[in-house]
Amino acid sequence: MPRNDHGAGATGVAGPGAPPPDETAAGMTTGALARRLGVSPTTLRSWDRRYGLGPAVRMDGRHRRWAPQDIAMVEEMCRLTAAGTSPAEAARVARLRSAADVTGARAAAPAPEPVAEPPHAPGAAPLPAGPPPAARPGGAGSGLPLGDVRQECRGLARAAVRLDAPELEQRLTQSVRRHGLLVAWEEVMVPTLRAVGRKWESSGDRYVEVEHLLSWHISTTLRSAPLLLPRAEPLTGAPPVVLACTPGEQHSLALEALTAALGECGVPTRTLGAAVPAEALLACVRRVGPAAVVLWSQTRSTASVPLARHVAGLEWGAAGARRRPVVLPAGPGWDRRASAGFPRCTGLRDAVRTLRRLYDDGDGRRPRAD
Fold it and tell me: Does the pTM of the predicted model rise above 0.85?
């Protein structure tokens, strides 16, 4: 669940008619700064603890209050990490630039009145001169190639590049609650995943950790969907839909999205996940007697037409009332020729409609006969 750290206010209560406190003068709270930057308060505290990017002054009780100089420093940290610079290097450069800004401001200020004592203690090392070192470049096109997408995608992408797990969790949860599962998947999660994937392909292994962390949190959010959204009354006693990746297919995130969307409609499911061996899939179908079997394939090399036909030919039930499952090939690995003779779906929304119609026979419990 998202965690909010709004900080504690200064002690004392303003009297009637008193003007509101000046947040700039008093310093910005961690919660307010986190909202301004689009990160989580936990991230700001982590940067303070790990890299020393915290407020220079703390109020009574050790409550953080961020001065303009502190804010500029973490803004620089955000800019550098979003450009692909490692967090440790970004923090080093942000601290150096902040120190240089302070030095420049002091140099531009009017000279103080002469004093009897020298401004520096004897033997003190002089301040470093010259501009701070440039940030390590993030490589060509280090920003994720998102294109024309919802604003939520940009915030999600920034959190992913920063490896900001609490922010990813919060943004994904808010997206599902605000837009519903289908819109959140099709218009927020998928565009961001594709942008990370394209960046990974064009940058070697630099963005592997970003893709893995984003996928993990999307998977967690999809599995948490029953706690985030209202669900239809389950179809008690109805045969389930079996969802499985074809043998050798490791990409199972789309199946998790379909499982969550069917659960929202009350359709029972049995999800087997990635790279299901053919023997295991056939054994599951025989034991469960599903209304439908979804076979996910991300690439042509894993789209097995013989397996789809074999599953479609399985029968069970008493003589005279034999039943077969509806087989739904899903995913970009199935081209029109490979999926000929089977239902076709263009996306998550279409797949939910196709599978839900199997149960629209009046009582909603038994699949409609073909």
Answer: no
